Amino acid sequence: MMLKTWIRKSVTRQMTTIGNKVEAAKMAAAFRAVDENLKPNDRIIGIGSGSTVVHVAERIGQSSNKDSFTCIATGFQSKELIISNGLRLGSIEQFPKVDIAFDGADEVDSKLNLIKGGGACLFQEKLVASAASKFVVVADYRKKSPSTLGVQWTKGVPIEIVPNSYAKVTRDLQEMGAKSVILRQGGSAKAGPVVTDNNNFLIDADFGAIEDAEKLHSSIKQLVGVVEVGLFIQMADQSYFGEESGEVSIWSK
Ligand SMILES: O=C(CO)[C@H](O)[C@H](O)COP(=O)(O)O
């Protein structure tokens, strides 16, 4: 085989192995989190967004008592997951008290503070998590922070804002010391900014390693124009991490 072809094949194989490992880790975390936390008397279940939660919905969809509970979505993708897994869909307006919510995260610190919103669904995710008696995070090994938030997830804190406030909130965040403030763009699939499920815009504000996540959260939250901040402070009860080894590790409050 020509050297170039061999290198290309070997790199592709390596990437596939890494991809499979991450996917297997997500699945292991999700299945274990559901198996250990979903109780027969849970009636209202929150389903988050992202690629790890796909496995949560799949596992919940395998329950034999599907008719006895209702699932609350955190956005469009989540709604589709609930429906496609044969689960009953309800709304947070009908059920403002949620028994348990499962969701992914972009970064988790040892106090179970989270960065969320990488998938642009942070407002509804926080709404459902805040209504839940128990909030369980599912993630792969890449999401663990070695110290503070902002170390592992370096794309910035996602912030949902009312569209016409973007220039003013950008200035506010710069004045607060953000190293970069980016209005998230739709990429090749959309000219212009990402529009959230709530018809808002998203800003990613990079504050580097966040020493005091609670303080930063309250400061951003106070800015006029901000709908919600992708810092989830002391909301999660447990976090399940699928490890590279195939094991699952659990961080609890
Ligand atoms: O906050 C989120 C979406 O807004 C997701 O939960 C977060 O991005 C994790 O996603 P994934 O499971 O795909 O890594």
UniProtKB/TrEMBL annotation:
Molecular function terms, GO-annotated: ribose-5-phosphate isomerase activity
Cellular component terms, GO, for this chain's entry?
cytoplasm
Which keywords has UniProt assigned to this entry?
Cytoplasm, Isomerase
Instruction: Report the superkingdom from the record.
Output: Eukaryota
Give me any GO biological process, just one: D-ribose metabolic process
Q: Which InterPro entries match?
A: NagB/RpiA_transferase-like, Ribose5P_isomerase_type_A
Pathway per the UniProt entry: Carbohydrate degradation; pentose phosphate pathway; D-ribose 5-phosphate from D-ribulose 5-phosphate (non-oxidative stage): step 1/1
Instruction: State the compartments where it is located.
Output: Cytoplasm
Q: What is the catalytic activity of this protein?
A: aldehydo-D-ribose 5-phosphate = D-ribulose 5-phosphate
The record ties this protein, via Pfam families, to: Rib_5-P_isom_A
EC number annotated for this UniProt entry: 5.3.1.6
Q: What family is this protein classified in?
A: Belongs to the ribose 5-phosphate isomerase family.
Please give the PANTHER family that the UniProt record associates with this protein.
RIBOSE-5-PHOSPHATE ISOMERASE
Q: What is this protein called?
A: Ribose-5-phosphate isomerase
